[in-house]
Structure formats: structure tokens, C-alpha cells
Amino acid sequence: MNFTSLLERHAGQRPDAVAFYDIDQPVTFAELLGESQRIAGLLHSRGARAGDRLALWLPNCTAWLATFMACARLGITVVSMNTRFRSREVGDLISRGKCQWLVIWPTFKGLPFQQILDDVEPELLQGLRGVMVVEDGHARGERSGAIPASVKGEPPALPETMRELIPGVPAFSHGAAAHADALMQVPMPGGDAYALVYTTSGTTSQSKLVVHDQQTLIRHGEWVCRYFDIGPDDAVLLGAPLCGAFGFSTALGGLAAGAPLVSSPILNPAECAKQIRQFKVTHTFANNELLSLVLDAAGEEERPFPSLRVAGFASFAPSLDDLPQRAERAGITLVGLYGSSELQALTAGQSPTAPLEERQLAGGRLTSPDARVRARDVETGEILPHGEIGEIEICTPSLMKGYLDNPEATEKAIDAEGYFRTGDLGHTTDDRGFVFHARRGDFLRLGGFLVNPLEIENFMETLPGVANCQVVGVAHGGKTVPVAFVIPEPGHTPVEAELIAQCKSQLAGFKVPVRVGVVEAFPVVESANSNKIQRGKLQEMARELLGAT
């Protein structure tokens, strides 16, 4: 199975069914198929061929989806790029991804795309052979934009300022027409053709490039739609950017089912709330921060989203641990999720029929019936019995093909039995179920005991004047000690000695932070799904605090 076959099946069976709502602009399956074929023909006419790589630097919009499908038709691998990326990340991805093509919407959101490109080291862009420029009307596939342009056969001229975004690299309009027979002699790629590259969201080192093929992505979408009961009459709100595993795996579930996807270039909580009501959204998967803001936007209504059957969430904002209870009061079935770029997002999820205390936990059942999970003791290397905490290892058909152009890293990540070493700690409930606890590096070995820093953080956030807390472990005096950083509540000035004293009165001695730093904000790195806290930077700050004692 490949993406063109999937799209042709939906377009053949239900051509007028909506595939994608771009804010409020409906795009049918027939239109999406036509757009993808036009763009594929356009790229092919410019010299793009199977095996090429294309950097897709767009927000959620019709152009993103249609361009991805066009690349899938040609056998081109898409290297997805977050619109939050700046010159260092853009240059790195284009260069390490060995991209020959770049797709960009230069006027989106007023972001300085031209300046970003100007700041990239020129040698990092030397492999590019063409830049496809998306303009405002073409991005959404509006009736007056890209779709009619292919019918009229009138290629729009690019504005003068967009004709050479990168010196020496020709630019052409995404909305230009392609000959009707442009793909006649172009063979259809197989399901094993590479389709998409995600970037891992490492916070302390260079990200790895994770590659998946077409058939693996499609099969994962089929398992997602079956596990979460997504059908063609449902609607799926994209709660994350398509450039990341979270957003794209959500889209895969909807595409596999033939259900309309609902999204917008900017994930505005008020607009998301409006879209849920307007398009009777039944499923969404997002980080807990966005879901919390969507609930805020709903106001005081008792059941603000009656169509919404399942809302899957990942806990990227630690301070929002009351979200499951808030959602429950609003009549929303919230379920914890688990996934990664290597395994796909939505690799596992809690059952919507489980009680709240179980549903709110990260992890759950593996969505593929052929997947298996186990936990390994981090010190002895032994496989642990169910219920004991160790490193989670998962064997699943949704596993990546590997790290792009990096077989050594791939070999380290996947063992001889096909199990992926997740780097996460948790315990299994059976061979297809588990509960996630924390990243392996986040657990602290304190006083000879394995301690989840979340336990200390949750306690400190109950103390007067403390809004948020993060705890890291650092070497000091020949052992690992905990150091806490807190963000104060407005109008409060927490005193370090008082906070430590309160911890001593209620926590075991080895859990008590030896220092507490008061900060205005935690250092973060931007990823496709959320801003992730840089624990490595916090450890540097902790060492500075300890050095000052």
C-alpha cells in the first residue's frame, strides 16, 4: 500500500467527502488527489525524481498535505521542518537531510523566512536544486487559488522578491500548472519507498533524523483508527503540527479511516474550540497545554463539546496535572498516550472505557495487535516481571526504518529481536500494556534509591508561593544530589531556606533538594509539539548554584 493508492481509494469511493478542513475551507478527497497530482507533475517537470529529498517548511495547511502526497506519488522523501526553526536548525536539516528541494511559504505569519535563509551558512544549502514558493492563496487551496490554477493552466508569476530566495537556486510557484500527462511515464513507488523524516526532539544534543516508509505509516494509521474507533463519519482535529510525529500520526488515523481532518496554520485555542463545534469533531490528540486552553476558551458551559468522544493527551506541561479532572467535569473522555518519532506517536493509548485514574496515565495498550512491550532492568540487563520499573522496550510494526544515513545509531537503538530501546522508564502490565513513568535520564539515583523527580516537584508545587518546579540531579561531593528550580506565583518571593525546611519536614532526607533556585522561567527548546524543558541547561545552572555554596 502507498499513499497514492490510499488517496485514490477514498476519491473513488467518496469523491465529494471532505478530506481536510483548512480553518473553514473544505478540500474533498477528489480535490486533494487532483492537487497532489498537479504538484507531482510540477516537481517532476522541474527534474525531481524518485529518491530525491524535499524539505517541507510549512505550517498545517492544504499545501502541506498536498505536497506530501505529491512527493509520495513520485517516491520523494519529505524532510519535515517546523516553522519555528531558525537558521541553525534549517541549515542543519537541509544539509544532513541531503535535500535537493525546499518548499516554503515566505509570507506566513509574518515570520522572517528570508532573514532565516540569509543567515544559513551558504555551504549548507549547496545541494538545493529548486525552491517551491507557496503564496497565501495557494497555501489553503482556496477556490480562487491553487486548485483552479491547475485547471486554467495559467502559471502565476512570482513576485520579484521571491524569485531568488536563495542565491543561485531557482524558485518557482507552488500554484503553477502541470501538463495533464506529466505523470504518464512515471512509475508508482512501492510501499517500501521512504516517505517522511521526523527530527527527534533531543534537548541537549544534535537531533537524529528518523525515516519511515509509506506502508509503515499507512498501517500505523489503520491501527490508530481501529484502536480509537475512528470512522469515515467522524472528524479529527489536528492538535499538533503535521511536521512532527504527534500531528502526523493523528492525521494518519483520520486518513486511514477516510474521516475529515480539521486544522489551521496557527493552533489558536479559541479557533480550535470553534472548529470542534462547527465540524462536530469526534477525536483529537494534543498536548495537555493546548487542551487546557481549549477548555478555557469554552467558558463555563457544562458540556461544551458534545461531539467529542476521545481526546488523547501527552503531558508536556507538568503544572497541568488537574486537566483530567477538568475534562471529566466537562464530559470529555481524556486518555493518556505514548509514542515517539521512532515508533510513531499514538503507539499506545489508554482505553476510553477505562476508569479515570487509569485513563489519565501515560502509556496504555499498544495500538498494533502485533506489537509487544517489555521492561529491562537498567543495571542488570534482565527482563523484568510485570509491575517492576525498568527501561521500556517496544517491538512494533510501526517502528522506523532507521535513522537517516546513520546505520550505527540505528543499530544501537534496535536490538537483534527488533525491540526499540525507548530510553523511557515504566512498568509493564502485560505483553501489550505498560505505564510510562519518566525518561530514563530523568530518574535520579538518590541515597541508593531510584527516585522520580516528579514526586519532589509535585510536593514543592503545593508550597506557598511556588507556581512551578523542576528538579534535576547533579554530581556533588561524590554522589548525586537533587537541586530544585521554582517559578514563583505572582506577588510572591519564595525563600530558599524556608522551602528546603518544608521539604525536610515531609520528604525523606535523600529527596530534599540541597539548593533551590528561583527563576522567572525554565530554559526550553522548541519542538514540533511543544516547548520542552532543557534539563541539561538546568543541570548547568544547578552546578553553578552548588559552586556558589
How is this fold's topology laid out?
Layout (H helix, E strand, L loop, with lengths): L2 H11 L4 E5 L2 E4 H17 L7 E5 L4 H13 L2 E4 L6 H10 L4 E4 L8 H7 L10 E4 L2 H4 L6 H7 L18 E3 L20 E6 L9 E5 H14 L8 E4 L5 H13 L3 E3 L5 H10 L4 E5 H10 L12 E5 L8 H7 L4 E7 L3 E6 L6 H4 L3 E4 L5 E5 L13 E6 L6 E2 L3 H7 L6 E11 L2 E7 L4 E3 L2 E3 L1 H8 L5 E11 L2 E10 L7 H11 L8 E4 L5 E3 L4 E3 L1 H13 L2
Parallel strand pairs: 1-11, 3-4, 3-5, 4-8, 5-6, 6-7, 10-11, 10-12, 12-13, 13-14, 25-26
Antiparallel strand pairs: 1-2, 8-9, 9-19, 14-15, 15-16, 16-21, 17-18, 18-20, 20-21, 22-23, 24-25, 27-28
Helix pairs in contact: 1-2, 2-3, 4-5, 8-9, 10-11
Describe the structure.
The chain has 549 residues and is α/β, with parallel strands linked by helices. Among the domains are: 29-213, 3-Layer(aba) Sandwich (Rossmann fold); 444-547, ANL, C-terminal domain (GMP Synthetase, Chain A, domain 3, 2-Layer Sandwich). It has 17 helices and 28 strands. It has a 13-stranded mixed β-sheet, with helices on both faces. Helix 1 (3-13) packs antiparallel against helix 2, helix 2 (29-45) crosses helix 3 (62-74) and helix 8 crosses helix 9 (245-257). The chain is globular.
CATH architectural type of the domain at 29-213:
3-Layer(aba) Sandwich
CATH class descriptor name of the domain at 29-213: Alpha Beta
Q: In DSSP terms, counting alpha (H) and pi (I) runs of 4 or more, how many helices?
A: 17
Rounded mean pLDDT is 91
Fold-level CATH name of the domain at 29-213: Rossmann fold
Strand order of the largest sheet: 2-1-11-10-12-13-14-15-16-21-20-18-17
Quick one: biggest sheet?
A: 13 strands, mixed
Q: Determine Rg (CA atoms, Å).
A: 24 Å
Distance between the termini: 62 Å
